[in-house]
Specification:
The complex is a heterodimer. Chain A has 9 helices and 13 strands. Chain A is of the alpha/beta class. In chain A, helix 5 runs parallel beside helix 6. Chain B is an all-alpha fold. In chain B, the strands form 2 sheets. In chain B, strands 1-4 form a two-stranded antiparallel sheet. Chain B has a two-stranded antiparallel ribbon with strand order 2-3. In chain B, strand 2 and strand 3 form a beta hairpin. In chain B, helix 4 packs across helix 13, helix 10 crosses helix 12 and helix 14 runs antiparallel to helix 15. Classes of the chains: A alpha/beta, B mainly alpha.
């Protein structure tokens, strides 16, 4: 990670310097333009939703933010400082934690082991140095309680939790280990309606605890209730960037589907239905 | 990890509520969650069965007999279990016991080393073979099953070829005359508790099982073993050094083979070139009977030891009962099948109960 000279930060809507900001970033893979001229920011206590259909460039975008890829052009700022991450570890050290959809917990391991995996609290000396199980169990329960989850049994395997609860474990862990910005990669895409609601609740909770949240999703109905800003990507380009009061849910859905394309689809579907009166 | 650590009063309250509910996890659930439960029940059943069919089986000398078989098997089964929990196999572990015993024999009888330096060289060699196994699996990303199968055949060939070329026979003998033999034999192959003559390897076995259990349940490395076997990607994402953990496990397996090879060579004063061939599957069977999943991420060292105990009891029990010892393979097969069926149920309940 290299820290370059700090450019004068622009005043953002949230007031002060945003926690994380990207300006006009582009990413090329050979001659493929994966991402072109995308800007976005998130402040403390804000949720920025990044929306886009499949192939819109969401995953490239998230990989740049989380340090897996490096941007080809543009600027990536953390608390006003220009950065270039070489690995997810670099990003984590700056407080940028990414919760990948299904690659965050080990199903057969217990809750407390998952929570502290890779950063186990230790006690004792020399060859008897060991994991401080008591502390690990207690801290895990406290942290999960802050997310509004009662952990009945810290030894329960994570695999027996619901999808929403598993996301909660990842989020609670990221927060406990000092994340300032949480990047959530499609946290609701594999979940049912009820579980999605639960995850949205965790997002709101993280925001209320003063974190910046970047919520990546292809579902505007999940984004709209929790978002403060909405960034829509389409085919690697920025379609727009709106504050919550600048756009309605319907407009958001329309923009995402690419407006005109959706109209045409509706038209075509109607024609098809008209042609087959007995069909459903 | 700064501001988030101190719990607010409201949180403390919630936690105390949670504490009360902790008692709700029933003893049955806790027991069922233990991977070694099936092996414990199996071991008791097998013991009762042979205690009834063969009188000598339940005498102390009989016990000394089957714990002897179980001990060398158990030492290997425990480390193989660790490796399996870490998500890998080592099919070369059986042949490796032979290789190490032969190497020790050749170093001392042919190349003039005294016993202790030769033992050190043998262990270093084993560590190198284990490292090679692990490194190849990590770098090629091939299944360890196939990589160590290759190692197995290479070792089998070397064992026979080198032994024949140097000694002209298929065994290395004469270790008893080597300086340092007495003290080494004391540590690796003596007996205790006259007149039943329990083997010292039983002590090694119990000690290794205890250490492995402690590592799995309390050490950071143990936590990482479960993690790399359960989901290597997720582990890497949270900063677990996956390659280092797995290579260390391969090295431990080979070094345990060196220990067992040394024990066998010192016990008999000689070692056969075919020593250990085919035993790798017995180790895996013991580990699986002990609750290890073939897919990794789950299992126990005590379970693997119990699995080894079952195999040991069966081998000796069949002999003591006066039956043809060929039946032991049938027995192994049946036990293995039962174990994988039970393990499958366990994993399903642990992994996918509420999605």
């Amino acid at each position: 990670m290299t820290v370059q000279a700090e450019p004068a930060p622009q005043a953002s809507t949230g007031g002060g310097v945003p926690l994380l900001e990207v300006r006009h970033i582009s990413k090329y893979f050979g001659n493929v333009i994966a991402l072109k001229d995308v800007s976005c920011r998130v402040g403390a206590g804000q949720v920025t939703c990044v929306l886009g259909d499949n192939g819109a460039g969401k995953s490239t975008f998230i990989k740049i933010l989380s340090g897996v890829h490096q941007h080809s052009e543009g600027e990536y700022l953390v608390e006003g400082e220009s950065v270039r991450f070489n690995s997810p570890r670099d990003a984590r050290e700056r407080g940028i934690a990414t919760v990948f959809q299904d690659l965050a917990t080990v199903p057969l391991m217990s809750l407390w082991r998952n929570f502290f995996l890779g950063s186990e609290p230790m006690i004792g000396k020399g060859p008897l140095r060991r994991v401080d199980v008591k502390t690990a169990r207690r801290v895990m329960r406290e942290e999960m309680a802050k997310m509004g989850i009662d952990v009945r049994d810290p030894d329960q395997p994570v695999g027996t939790l619901s999808g929403g609860e598993r996301q909660a474990v990842s989020i609670a862990r990221a927060v406990y280990f000092g994340a300032k910005v949480l990047i959530l990669d499609e946290p609701t895409s594999a979940l049912g309606v009820k579980q999605s609601g639960v995850v949205l609740k965790y997002i709101v909770q993280a925001r209320e605890r003063g974190l910046g949240v970047i919520f990546i999703t292809h579902n505007p109905h999940h984004a709209y209730p929790v978002g403060d800003r909405f960034v829509v990507l389409n085919r690697g380009k920025l379609m727009g960037d709106w504050g919550r009061d600048e756009i309605t849910r319907d407009e958001l859905v329309q923009t995402m589907a690419g407006g005109a394309e959706l109209d045409q689809l509706t038209h075509e579907l109607q024609r098809q239905l008209g042609r087959a009166p007995n069909g459903r | 990890m700064s501001e988030a650590v101190t719990p607010s009063p409201a949180v403390t309250e919630t936690v105390s509520v949670v504490d009360d509910r902790l008692a709700e996890v029933s003893l049955v659930t806790k027991l069922l969650r233990r991977p070694e439960l099936g092996a414990l029940i199996g071991a008791l059943a097998v013991f009762l069965f042979f205690a009834i069919t063969a009188e000598s089986f339940r005498t102390l000398s009989g016990v000394a007999n089957w714990t002897d078989v179980a001990s060398t098997l158990g030492i290997m089964a425990v480390v193989v279990a660790l490796l399996m929990i870490g998500g890998e196999f080592d099919l070369s572990a059986g042949a490796m016991t032979g290789t190490c015993g032969l190497l020790l024999g050749l170093l001392t009888t042919e190349w003039g080393l005294s016993m202790w330096p030769a033992i050190i060289v043998t262990f270093a060699f084993a560590a190198l073979v284990g490292f090679t196994n692990g490194y190849m699996v990590m770098k090629t990303k091939l299944p360890s099953f196939i990589v160590t199968l290759a190692t197995f055949f290479i070792l089998q060939g070397v064992n026979l070829g080198v032994t024949k070329a140097i000694t002209g026979t298929v065994r290395v003998a004469g270790l008893t005359d080597v300086p340092g033999f007495e003290s080494a034999a004391q540590l690796f192959s003596s007996t205790f508790w006259e007149p039943h003559n329990f083997r010292i390897s039983v002590i090694w076995w119990i000690a290794i099982t205890a250490v492995a259990t402690w590592v799995l349940s309390r050490a950071r490395f143990g936590n990482w073993i479960f993690a790399v076997g359960g989901d290597a990607n997720a582990s890497r994402n949270v900063g677990v050094p996956v390659q280092r953990v797995k290579i260390t496990l391969f090295m431990l397996t080979s070094m345990a083979a060196a220990l067992v090879g040394t024990m066998i060579a010192l016990r008999l004063g000689s070692i056969q070139a075919g020593q250990g061939i085919g035993e790798e599957f017995t180790y895996i069977i013991a580990a699986v009977v002990g609750g290890c999943l073939l897919t990794g991420g789950y299992g126990s060292a005590i379970g693997a030891s119990l699995g080894a105990l079952i195999v040991g009891m069966a081998f000796i029990g069949i002999q003591f009962s006066g039956w043809n010892t060929d039946w032991r393979f049938l027995f192994l097969g049946v036990i293995l099948l039962m174990a994988v069926l039970v393990n499958n149920l366990v994993r399903k309940s642990a992994e996918g109960a509420r999605k």
